[in-house]
Amino acid sequence: MTPDAVLHRYVELTSAPDIGVEDLYRLVCTDADLLHRYVSSLGCLVDPDAIKHGLRSLDRTMLHGLARAHTWAVAPLGGDGPVAVDGQDW
Questions:
Q1: What is the dihedral of CA 77, 69, 19, 24, to 10 degrees?
Q2: Per-residue pLDDT of the chain (90 residues; tens, 9 = 90+)
Q3: pTM of this prediction?
Q4: pLDDT of residue 75
Q5: Considering only CA atoms, which of 25, 29, 34 is closest in space to residue 1?
Q6: How far is residue 44's CA from residue 73's CA, in Å, rounded to a whole number?
Q7: Quick check: 43 and 54 in contact, CB under 8 A?
Q8: pLDDT on residue 85
Q9: Which residues fall within 8 angstroms of residue 75, CB to CB, at 6 or more apart?
Q10: Cβ(7)–Cβ(27) under 8 Å?
Q11: CA pair distance 58, 50, nearest whole angstrom
Q12: Which residues are CB-neighbours of 6 under 8 A, at least 6 positions away?
């Protein structure tokens, strides 16, 4: 799971009106989950030039949409909550 510090920085970076591709690339490369998701989404090799090219090829709207989707994919889903397995109301 993506560490909180990386996720926090990722949300900060991708919330900016203009996402810096170089900054995004460096951050994505620090986390295996994010790197895997971006390489899969971009359909590119795990190669610095290929990843940067893929990121640069996205328009601003696409890059923000992709960033939001990846945020939800790697973010923890909150704390534990009660789960009813026998129909009981908690």
A1: 70
A2: 578 888 889 999 999 999 999 999 999 999 998 999 999 999 999 999 999 999 999 999 999 999 999 888 877 765 544 444 555 554
A3: 0.77
A4: 77
A5: 34
A6: 19
A7: yes
A8: 52
A9: 2, 7
A10: no
A11: 13
A12: 27, 30, 31, 34
Alpha-carbon dihedral of residues 51, 39, 25, 6, nearest 10 degrees? -170
**59-63-65 Cα angle (round to 5):** 120
CA-nearest of 80, 77, 85, 71 to 31 is 71
Widest distance between CA atoms in the chain: 55
pLDDT of 30: 93
| Tokens linked to 50 | 């290929």
Residue boundaries of the structural domains of the chain: 4-74
Burial group, residue 87, by CB count within 10 angstroms (0-12, 13-18, 19+): exposed
The type of residue at 36 is: H
